[in-house]
Amino acid sequence: MRHCAGLVAVVSTISMLALPAADVLRSRDQGAFWEALLFLRGRVRAILVDPADPRQIYVGAERLPRGHGFGTTGVVYHSADGGLTWTFAALAGARPPVVSLAADPLVPHGVLAGTSGAVFASSDRGATWQLLGGPLPPARVVAIAADPFSPARLYVATSGARAFVLAGRAKGDR
Known about the structure:
Blueprint: E1 7-11, E2 14-19, E3 23-27, E4 35-39, E5 42-49, E6 57-63, E7 73-79, E8 87-90, E9 100-103, E10 111-114, E11 119-122, E12 130-132, E13 141-146, E14 154-158, E15 163-166
Antiparallel strand pairs: 1-2, 2-3, 3-4, 5-6, 6-7, 7-8, 9-10, 10-11, 11-12, 13-14, 14-15
């Protein structure tokens, strides 16, 4: 058995594996066989399979520029058909990579994305993004979770071992 480091998302009998070297793979047989779904020019940093609809897959990444340019852009790739086709959208003004993804419990088809010092929200399955709340300290947002008793409150964890609360969101805020 070969060891590989990556991100894993499992919904029902479908397993998704995102390798940091820019590949997204899928298994429908508990890992006996893997098929390639997406190859990126960059690095995969986060993966989310919509628990309500496993055909909806999101991949957070840092996208490298074409040619020999410098810098990366934070992007989210989205598949509405289980990984057969993909679209992507850059986050508004976000240069750092997208390092965390979460479903937004306040908005049907809503997705949350964490970058360095910011959380972005999409209400249209990742086609467009808006900055959510105020800026955070310049550390990567490694996890986003909604309070199960008050979904308008988000808990945000950063790579600097700090936690923050984004509160006061209302259904339909965007």
